[in-house]
């Protein structure tokens, strides 16, 4: 197994159903059932919105810094067993502040777990705060202003949640404030939305990386731009299957076409508790469906390192780990 750099993983999307139950019980919060099998029966999604409705509903049980710590610590433990060496992970501040939780509690819990993962596993990375498209532009601006006093705890900002109907250009002010602070910028775009969502993320928001971006393949000019500027796409195969944003068989996934086009793609888990697995599970499923060659696996590992915001020395160390694993 090659060392992995993970760039598209929502901490809230790593909330396993057993943990939802445990934290609901700890906080005295009602759930429709406390039987994991009953809750899991709802994990079938017609589209992105059906998934998001459940994801935001489950996260209501979170209350304290300890809850946020435990959620992230469980992800980092699992990521470590998957061979993840560097992880740039998303979280959705607005869903928690909307539930009456102080931003400080969220940041304190997530940051403590991140630092423990670095200390205990040598797993580096950072936190990317996502603006939720469906909360609108003004709320995104309020959110970046609230985050700025904690800027040192953040690697960057992102954009997620309901895509269609919430075009990327709307969030330009929040992204420009983030840029002025030297924060990295990424955006989910072209998951369900047309190539326009990707163009605007690049040209209006100035993002450095596109999350998903599958629909970019519909626009040859956009593909040429992404290839020419080496703009990374963070691809999430099991998410694409679960949300029907790729053909139903992984053997028909656009990954080979993306690689063929020269796109800088990496493999990621998105919301592992909801979509059937962590990043190692994504690689295993791809291997089974597409019989990835050793050269392709190495390319994907190196692409993810190049796509990351790790500092040059850390990128070199990660590349050396890949080279050492390839030589085995
Ligand atoms: N798309 C948009 N928003 C999200 C996703 C996703 O795949 N996962 C968590 N929030
Ligand atoms: Zn995502």
Keywords, separated by commas or semicolons:
13% strand; globular; binds hypoxanthine; alpha/beta; 328 residues; 15 helices; binds zinc ion; 8-stranded parallel beta sheet; TIM Barrel; single chain
Folded structure, characterized:
Helix 8 (172-180) links the parallel strand 4 (156-160) and strand 5. The longest helix has 19 residues, at 103-121. The chain has a single domain, classed as TIM Barrel, CATH 3.20.20.140. The N and C termini lie close together (10 Å). It has an eight-stranded parallel sheet. The protein contains 15 helices and eight strands. The radius of gyration is 18 Å and the shape is globular. It is of the alpha/beta class and 328 residues long. The model has no long low-confidence stretch (mean pLDDT 98). It has helices at 17-27, 36-40, 48-58, 65-82, 93-98, 103-121, 137-147, 172-180, 195-203, 220-228, 237-242, 255-260, 279-290, 294-307, 312-327; strands spanning 4-6, 84-91, 124-132, 156-160, 184-189, 209-212, 232-235, 264-267. Helix 7 packs parallel to helix 8 (172-180) and helix 14 packs antiparallel against helix 15.
CATH topology: TIM Barrel
Indicate the overall shape: globular
The CATH C-level name is Alpha Beta
| Overall residue-averaged pLDDT value | 98
Assigned CATH architecture: Alpha-Beta Barrel
Q: Are there runs of 5+ residues with pLDDT below 50, and where? A: none
- Distance separating the two termini: 10 Å
Give the biggest beta sheet.
8 strands, parallel
Which small molecules are bound? hypoxanthine, zinc ion
The CATH fourth-level homologous superfamily: Metal-dependent hydrolases
Query: Which sequence of strands runs across the widest sheet?
Result: 1-2-3-4-5-6-7-8
Report the β-strand fraction as a percent range.
Answer: 5-15%
Number of strands: 8
Count the domains: 1
């Amino acid at each position: 197994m090659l060392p992995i750099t993970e760039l598209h993983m929502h901490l809230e999307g790593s909330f396993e159903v057993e943990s939802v139950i445990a934290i609901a019980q700890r906080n005295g919060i009602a759930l429709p059932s406390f039987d994991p099998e009953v809750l899991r029966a709802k994990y079938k999604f017609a589209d992105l919105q059906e998934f998001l409705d459940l994801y935001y509903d489950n996260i209501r049980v979170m209350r304290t810094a300890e809850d946020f710590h435990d959620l992230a610590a469980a992800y980092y433990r699992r990521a470590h067993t998957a061979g993840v060496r560097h992880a740039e992970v998303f979280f959705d501040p607005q869903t928690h502040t909307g539930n009456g939780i102080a931003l400080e509690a969220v940041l304190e819990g997530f940051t403590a777990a991140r630092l423990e993962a670095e200390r205990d596993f040598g797993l580096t990375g950072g936190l990317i705060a996502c603006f939720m498209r469906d909360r609108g532009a003004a709320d995104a601006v309020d959110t970046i202003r609230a985050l700025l006093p904690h800027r040192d705890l953040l690697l960057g900002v992102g954009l997620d949640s309901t895509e269609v109907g919430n075009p990327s250009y709307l969030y330009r002010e929040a992204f420009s404030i983030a840029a002025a602070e030297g924060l990295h910028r990424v955006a989910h775009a072209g998951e369900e939305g047309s190539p326009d969502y990707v163009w605007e993320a690049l040209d209006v928001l100035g993002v450095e990386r596109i999350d998903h971006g599958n629909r970019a393949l519909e626009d040859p000019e956009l593909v040429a731009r992404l290839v020419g500027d080496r703009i990374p796409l963070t691809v999430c195969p099991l998410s694409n299957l679960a949300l029907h944003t790729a053909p139903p068989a992984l053997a028909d996934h656009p990954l080979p076409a993306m690689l063929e086009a020269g796109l800088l793609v990496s493999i990621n888990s998105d919301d592992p508790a909801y979509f059937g697995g962590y990043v190692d599970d994504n690689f295993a499923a791809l291997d089974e469906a597409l019989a990835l060659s050793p050269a392709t696996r190495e390319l994907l590992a190196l692409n993810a390192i190049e796509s990351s915001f790790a500092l040059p020395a850390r990128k070199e160390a990660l590349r050396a780990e890949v080279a050492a694993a390839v030589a085995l």
